[in-house]
Amino acid sequence: MRVHTDDCLAAAQRRLYGDQVRWFRTSVVVDNLGPEDIATHRSLAEVRARHHAEITEWELLRAHAVDEAALLLARHR
User: Fold this and answer.
1) pLDDT of residue 7
2) Contact by Cβ (8 Å): 28, 1
3) What is the pLDDT of residue 3?
4) pTM for this model (two decimals)
5) Is residue 63's pLDDT more than 90?
6) Average pLDDT in the 40-67 region?
7) What is the DSSP string of the chain?
8) Other CB atoms closer than 10 Å to residue 13's CB: what's the count?
């Protein structure tokens, strides 16, 4: 998988998440937890436990994005 680094979506992701590469890597893992449980015949809870670090990183980056978006919206009111 690859991610574009030179378009407007890339710029927005860098602005919101603080680190586009980390966001991309963790979101790929988090977005594929369901398919992984099916492919590995493990429960979703087991898969989530296995990827605890990535989920935690994803949550931190998402919280950063929420905060950044709130600041941007507040500036444009």
Assistant:
1) 83
2) yes
3) 65
4) 0.83
5) yes
6) 96
7) ----SSSHHHHHHHHHHS-HHHHHHHHHHHHTHHHHHHHHT--HHHHHHHTHHHHHHHHHHHHHHHHHHHHHHHHT-
8) 22
